[in-house]
Amino acid sequence: MVVKFPLLLVLLAVSSSFGQQPDPPGQTVQGETAKNEAYLFAHMTHEDYGRLYYSASRDGLHWQKLNDGKRVFDEYQGHPDICKGPDGKYYIVGNTSDSSPDINIWVSEDLINWIKHSVYTPNLKSTPNYSQALQRIGAPKLFYDVASSQFVMTWHTPHKEGTKEDPERYWASQRTLYVLSKDLKTFSDVPKRLFDWDFGTIDVIIRKVGDTYYAFIKDETYPTLYWPTGKTIRIARSGSLLGSYSLPSDPISPNFREAPMLIPSPDDKIWYLYYEQYPGVSYGLSIADNPNGPWYQASGYTFYNDWDKYSLPEKVRHGCMITISKKEYDTLVDTFGIQKETLNRQPN
């Protein structure tokens, strides 16, 4: 005999088995030791764009301001990007403005005390097949490649000025350049283009997972019916550090998102990818169990208790997120203090 269940009961059973609002995966369970113990978010703020602030997290999902929301290093200017080197020291890269000719690098043993390490001034017009480059350096970023024992420093440089009639042509002309270095004091002879495709890219970060290099990019073409991927976060892949890289994937974020930041979950099985909805409107979080996806977008940064699955302080702007040890986290909290959590507003 075949027993037929009403459709509503079947749907309720399926819904119950998955839960109404599942929490993001990747967290450790009671009694399990986290492989990634804590996280640091080095960022700007809406009111003080281009200066260095810290927020921290134990779970990679819920972030609290350090230093009572004040700057942590007055000398720094730029879009914060921190990389840990083979010597165990941390390096941060920045520039005073996009029109400045110099890229500044500082070094720290503890993420608290920073000292000037070097200044690099690229000859942008020496870039092969890019002699039309303008003197603009956007958002320098660092990645240390263990396989080749060298740093790669990337940034974006345009080749067209904007106009009143077409301000977006400036952004569409951005191309990602790079140089290599063993010690961040001496650099390869000339900058080169990282990608061989011919459309705008900015805010590129490189990460290696397994044997594959992933470039997380912002597609900097303005979105239209004919370029629907514009102003989204996309991923390109390569078997080697310098490519060639695949054409970028379909978007893993909505339009008008930038500055991707990738961290592994506490249990090291899941990837959390944050990005900013600009200008300083909100933050998004996409989640996957491997960089090839599929990715889904979590709910958060709404400041409603029963809706948020992740939270960041209000009016933080983009920068970088890195994993740190519990000891480093405790030292940062002891040094700067941590802002106590406040109750989120309840829905009406």
From TrEMBL:
<dbReference type="GO" id="GO:0016787">
    <property type="term" value="F:hydrolase activity"/>
</dbReference>
<keyword id="KW-0378">Hydrolase</keyword>
<keyword id="KW-0732">Signal</keyword>
<dbReference type="InterPro" id="IPR023296">
    <property type="entry name" value="Glyco_hydro_beta-prop_sf"/>
</dbReference>
<dbReference type="InterPro" id="IPR050727">
    <property type="entry name" value="GH43_arabinanases"/>
</dbReference>
<feature type="signal peptide">
    <location>
        <begin position="1"/>
        <end position="19"/>
    </location>
</feature>
<protein>
    <submittedName>
        <fullName>Glycosyl hydrolase family 43</fullName>
    </submittedName>
</protein>
